[in-house]
Write a structure and sequence with these properties.
Layout: H1 2-36, E1 48-51, H2 69-80, E2 84-85, H3 90-103, E3 123-129, H4 140-145, E4 156-157, E5 160-161, E6 166-175, E7 181-190, H5 194-199, H6 214-218, H7 220-239, H8 247-250, E8 256-258, E9 262-265, E10 274-278, E11 283-291, E12 294-298, E13 304-308, E14 312-314
Parallel strand pairs: 1-2, 1-3
Antiparallel strand pairs: 3-6, 4-5, 5-6, 6-7, 8-11, 8-14, 9-10, 11-12, 12-13
Length: 316
């Protein structure tokens, strides 16, 4: 019995040694896919944006009991903090009704509704499907099959295949001042990708699941479409510089605090008139520029200058 146990233990150990490299490689791949299935967080705001549907669109989402894709993109925008979202849909129509009441004198005094208050959009973002017909726009095939969604003939519509659960989508970003298309990003996903979104929490309460677009979280085709649009959105904001390749390098330097009284100088030589006096315990924020022992810093009031690093320590 002891010999059998030893043999079994040796066999198990050899199998474990063989399996370890494969598991490690899979783990790295899993990590990459899970990262792609997360809503990105921008390192800086990129401007104001409105999200609208493409012109002459056929509502392919209605047959699948899904909200309009613009609502899904708005969730990405809000959660990523990459843009300030301005409403050009139902919310704006309601606001204009309030303004009409104000113009007619129907609102109370001091309601503070008038001209010049609506925030301008810097960009317009349009979600669409990638056409499988190279001679047509993204909506041409959709138009032909629009009345057949859910039937056999409607199994393939534009960039969607409802039978095999695949999606090919595109996001187009237009500058409203120049009318230039400043960015375009494509995304694609398939049924086998759906697990990564669930693993990363994309379809849970902290993702799109509790954001008024439940159909995209609760159905197979909805999840596939979500992953495709998320891939395109992440690529788009990366193109614009909102998502850094090295997030740690893009983050602000850790704050420092004064350990001894000192002065903030206008140059790294420490000569000339001081910008201001620095007291013990005062918080300063390094810019990353250094010359010898002198560091360039910024105080909490926005004053920028140079201070000796011998007078500071990392803030705790």
């Amino acid at each position: 019995m002891l010999k059998i146990s030893l043999k079994q233990a040796a066999l198990a150990a050899s199998m474990l040694m063989i399996a370890v490299p494969a598991f490690a490689a899979k783990s790295a791949q899993d990590t990459r896919k899970e990262k792609v299935a997360q809503i990105p967080t921008c390192t800086k705001p990129l401007g104001t944006i409105s999200v609208i549907e493409p012109e002459d669109v056929v509502n392919w989402w209605t047959g699948q009991q899904l909200p309009a894709p613009s609502r899904l993109i708005k969730v990405f925008v809000n959660k990523s903090r990459c843009f300030t979202l301005v409403d050009r849909g139902v919310g704006l129509n309601a606001a204009m009704s309030e303004r009409a009441l104000a113009a007619d004198g129907e609102l109370r005094n001091r309601s503070n509704i008038g001209k010049g208050q609506i925030k301008a959009a810097d960009y317009v973002l349009v979600p669409d499907l990638i056409s499988q017909n190279s001679n047509a726009s993204g909506n041409a095939i959709t138009g032909l099959l629009g009345g057949l969604i859910g039937g056999t003939a409607g199994a393939v519509v534009g960039g969607l295949n409802f039978k095999s659960k695949t999606a090919d989508v595109v996001l187009t970003l237009t500058d409203v001042r120049s009318s230039e298309q400043v960015a375009m990003a494509e995304g694609n996903a398939k049924k086998t990708d759906m697990g990564w979104g669930a693993g990363g929490g994309l379809f849970g309460g902290s993702g799109v699941g509790a954001a008024g677009v439940g159909g995209y979280a609760n159905t197979e085709i909805g999840q596939v479409i979500t992953l495709a649009y998320l891939q395109a959105y992440t690529d788009l904001v990366t193109q614009l510089g909102g998502v850094a390749e090295n997030a740690s390098a893009a983050s602000a330097q850790q704050a420092v605090e004064m350990t001894k009284p000192g002065r903030l100088f206008a140059n790294a030589k420490g000569s000339g008139k001081a910008v201001r006096d620095l007291d013990v315990g005062m918080m300063l924020y390094p810019t990353g520029n250094k010359e010898g022992v002198m560091w360039e810093v910024e105080d909490e009031l926005g004053n920028k200058g140079w201070v000796s690093s011998t007078l500071v320590q990392l803030a705790r």
